[in-house]
Amino acid sequence: MRKQIKAILIIIPILIAIGVTLTFVLPLFKQPPTGSKGVVRVYVNSTIAQSISTEIDQYEQDIMNQGYTVQVINWSNSDVNVLRSDLINASIRPEGLEGAVIVGDLPAAYLQYWDNPWSKWRKYPCDLFLTDLDGQWVDNDPTDELFDAHNNGTGDIYPEIWLGRICPESLNNLNHLTAYRNYFTRNHAYRTGQLTRPHSQLVYIDDDWSAWTSEWLGDMTAYTNITCISTNAVTTATDYKSRLTHTYEFVHVFVHSWPYEHMFGPGGYGTEGKVNCSDILSINTKSLFYNLYACSAANFSNTNNMGNQYLFSNNTLAVVGSTKEGGMTMNSYFYTPLSQGKIFGEALKLWWWNPLHGPSDPISVGMVLLGDPLLTI
Predict the structure, then answer these.
(1) Residue 45 burial by CB count (10 A; 0-12/13-18/19+): exposed, middle or buried?
(2) What's the predicted TM-score (pTM) here?
(3) Given the DSSP bridges, would you call strands 110-115 and 120-125 parallel, antiparallel or unpaired?
(4) What share of the chain in percent tops pLDDT 90?
(5) SS3 99
(6) With CB atoms 3.0 to 4.6 Å apart as the test, which of 141, 278, 334, 346 could cross-link to 342 if both were Cys?
(7) By the 8 A CB rule, do 375 and 184 touch?
(8) Is the pLDDT of residue 33 over 60?
(9) For range 25-29, the mean pLDDT
(10) In angstroms, rounded to a whole number, what is the distance separating the alpha carbons of residues 220 and 54?
């Protein structure tokens, strides 16, 4: 009996010590909430990871608060094929993969196409490469590192996951670390109800698309409070810039563009003025979200591209646009999921799955999401 009592007296302090240890240690391992919505991988460029660790920690917690399991990965490999392989491997694990967020200057796949008006080959980044995980991407000339074709492979050409990019490093007119920190600060403010806008949308349709105004408006299914500007005499660069100071939640603009400027007026010559990255930087833009039907404006590989200039100026949280000629058509397949409370990444993924345009449509294939894909309107 004495031996049993002695053993109990020894075991009790050990159990107490273990309990105290677990009390302090377990919180260090962030646990997914019960009934997780799935896994999200956040890839952070290892060269900036330490500098923005506070912001990434908060962002990780914000995503967990949405109900997701989060895996933050410091990434340094510059080969986009390795990044895609990592996403594929994550997607086939038992827990699966919902989507990914890329923070920092990490690799992208490039495709090429023949630009008929200019009779030349052009290349553009294509994030569909990182989201269609069972399709096949064909590079006929490996020396140029440009993909030439996309087919079903072992599955199909549609995305299995969603993805967003948060990277200001193509902009040479602002401090990059400050831009990261400011972005994640306002992202958290929006998520916690400190950054708000009236539930409203500006639809700005320049001359060459104004004849189809009623069709465009019929696809804007996320908002009932819509201000539409489509009168040819009104849609000018000056007027557009003035409206960017109004407090809409979402702006959808149709305008001829290059990566670094919008060109208002018919034909894409800028006869009614131009809006460039410096304009966006200097204007106190108020809107939180943008959809740019503006050729190449979201080509994040170009210095001072419009997409990233919108994203890292003032209040913006997400920008949808194309890295090449084209833009989003049949917009209801994107806006209706948003109206149902789905996140931006999922809404764009569902838009891709509309077979009437989808990844096989050359106008669509350059579509990307700049910013946090886990936000909702």
Answers:
(1) middle
(2) 0.90
(3) antiparallel
(4) 82
(5) strand
(6) 346
(7) no
(8) no
(9) 34
(10) 37
Whether the pLDDT of residue 12 is over 70: the answer is no
For the chain, the structural domain boundaries read 39-151, 185-371
Residue type, 131: T
What average pLDDT does range 196-214 have in this prediction?
98
- For 255, which DSSP code? -
Q: Please state the length of the chain.
A: 377
Average pLDDT over residues 303-324: 97
Distances (CA, A) of 141 to 79, 120, 359: 17, 17, 22
Q: Tokens for 69?
A: 């399991």
Q: Which residues of 210-246 are buried (b: 16+ CB within 10 A; e: fewer)?
A: beebeebeebbbbbeeeebbbeeeebbbebbbebbee
Strand partners, 292: 253, 321
Contacts of 214 (CB under 8 A, 6+ apart): none
Tally the C-alpha atoms within 13 A of residue 136's C-alpha that lie toward its C-beta. Answer: 8
Q: Which residues contact 6 (CB under 8 A, 6 or more apart)?
A: none
In angstroms, the Cα distances linking 89 to 8, 41, 136, 142 are 48, 12, 16, 24
Amino acid at 164: G
Q: Does domain 185-371 have CATH number 1.10.3720.10?
A: no
β-strand partners of 136: 151
Q: How many helices (H) and strands (E) does the chain have?
A: 11, 17
Read off the tokens for 121.
């080959």
Average of per-residue pLDDT across 233-260: 98
Whether 124 shows a pLDDT value over 80: the answer reads yes
145: region left, alpha or beta (phi > 0 left; psi from -120 to 50 alpha): left
* Beta carbons of 292 and 318 less than 8 angstroms apart: no
> What integer is the mean pLDDT of 208-236?
98
Q: Which helix (H) or strand (E) holds 100?
A: strand 99-103
- β-partners of residue 228 are 203
Question: What confidence tens digit (pLDDT) does each residue in 276-302 have?
Answer: 999 999 999 999 999 999 999 999 999
Q: How would residue 360 be classed by pLDDT, with cut points 50, 70 and 90?
A: confident
What single-letter DSSP state applies at residue 270?
-
Decide: helix, strand or coil at residue 195.
Answer: coil
Residues 201, 250: contact at Cβ < 8 Å? yes
**Structure confidence at residue 122 (pLDDT):** 84
Question: What SS3 state is found at 230?
Answer: coil
